[in-house]
Design a protein that fits this description.
By secondary structure, the chain is α+β, with helices and mostly antiparallel strands. It has 9 helices and 9 strands. Helices cover 60% and strands 15% of the residues. The strands form 3 sheets. Strands 4-6-7-9-8 form a 5-stranded mixed β-sheet, covered by helices on one side. Strands 1-2 form a two-stranded antiparallel sheet.
Length: 339
């Protein structure tokens, strides 16, 4: 059992906490030898009663409070505090335990009963706070794990979506290219091979390099251009002085993919602009595309929602900025990352 597994076991966690408390009490008692035995006896009884009260209170929380029976919980908790204080006072009386104050006088009931009630109340409050703080922390980490799993699943679906639709269209385009311009087939096949290799490699890695991502985009754009008519102008530039910087895979594809998905108008001129620039600390992708006059928005897919979620996970806060501008004739997106 490793360290993290140890703290997943409730009995082990609670046992460690009580051992630390007992050790602290023993240490404090040793600092006052004149009254140490009296304090040890008192604290031993105190710990026994507090432990019983704390676990009984846990049962009340589960049975009443967490089910919304707040009145029953309040009455039961008050009864537990009073009973715990009475039990602690009675055990101290039976064991002839008292606390000696600074003047040497023995302090007994009724003062000890009030002190006992206070001790029980404080212990229950602290134990309850600790219980729900730990539960909140555990819930937070579980939500993070679920979110990471959801993003991983969405990314896998996005890859599958790219593979299925894009590969089908590309094969059709390659068939047409083999008939119309067979001399261009080798380059197109190399681009397709590069895409497939990227898909395979990125599925095994948490990050890729900026240069690898740019090469993927270049291959993707090159294959998409096979199906475009002469009335479509495509601009793609990549200025990357630091191509070895790490980047989350397929992070830029949704914006590029949308350009080709929404910009094609057979009856008019189309413009697609994709510019990738890099500085010492950042990466910027600017995309823009003309919008056909009869454009009808397609049903929302996984692309942009998954992109926003992945940006929040991998580049949280001020490490990313995604701005989108749309008019009747043009759509532009600007993504800035701090690497």
């Amino acid at each position: 059992m490793n360290f993290s597994q140890f703290f997943r076991h409730r009995a082990a966690r609670h046992g460690l906490v009580w051992l630390l408390i007992i050790g602290f009490i023993a240490l404090m008692a040793s600092l006052d030898p004149a009254n140490s035995w009296e304090k040890v006896r008192y604290n031993a009884v105190l710990l026994a009663v507090l432990a019983a009260a704390i676990y009984a209170h846990y049962a009340l929380l589960t049975r009443f409070f967490e089910r919304g029976h707040y009145g029953a919980y309040a009455v039961s908790a008050l009864g537990l505090v009073l009973a715990g204080g009475a039990l602690l006072d009675a055990l101290n009386h039976v064991a002839h335990i008292a606390i000696i104050n600074q003047t040497g006088q023995r302090i007994t009931t009724p003062y000890l009963y009030g002190q006992a009630v206070g001790n029980v109340t404080l212990a229950l409050v602290l134990a309850t706070v600790a219980r729900y703080v730990r539960r909140g922390i555990t819930s937070h980490f579980q939500m993070q794990q679920l979110r990471a799993l959801q993003l991983e699943t969405e990314l896998s679906l996005l890859k599958a979506q790219v593979n299925q639709h894009f590969l089908f269209n590309t094969l059709n385009n390659l068939y047409g290219l083999s008939l119309a311009a067979p001399d261009q087939m080798p380059e197109a096949l190399l681009q397709l091979a590069g895409l497939m290799r990227y898909q395979l490699d990125s599925s095994r890695q948490a990050t890729v390099t900026v240069g690898t991502e740019a090469e993927y985009l270049a291959n993707y754009i090159g294959l998409e251009k096979l199906r475009l008519r002469e009335n479509t102008t495509v601009e793609f530039t990549a200025d990357l002085p630091h191509p070895d910087r790490p980047l989350a895979p397929l992070l830029l594809l949704p914006l590029v993919e949308n350009c080709f998905k929404h910009a094609i108008d057979p009856s008019g001129d189309n413009v697609i602009r994709i510019h990738l620039t890099q500085t010492n600390t950042g990466l910027t992708l600017r995309t823009g595309n003309s919008i056909p006059a009869q454009f009808r928005p397609a049903p929302s897919g996984l692309g942009l929602p998954t992109l926003r979620a992945r940006l929040a996970q991998f580049y949280p806060g001020n490490r990313h900025r995604l701005a989108v501008e749309a008019s009747d004739t043009f759509y532009a997106a600007n993504l800035q990352l701090v690497l």
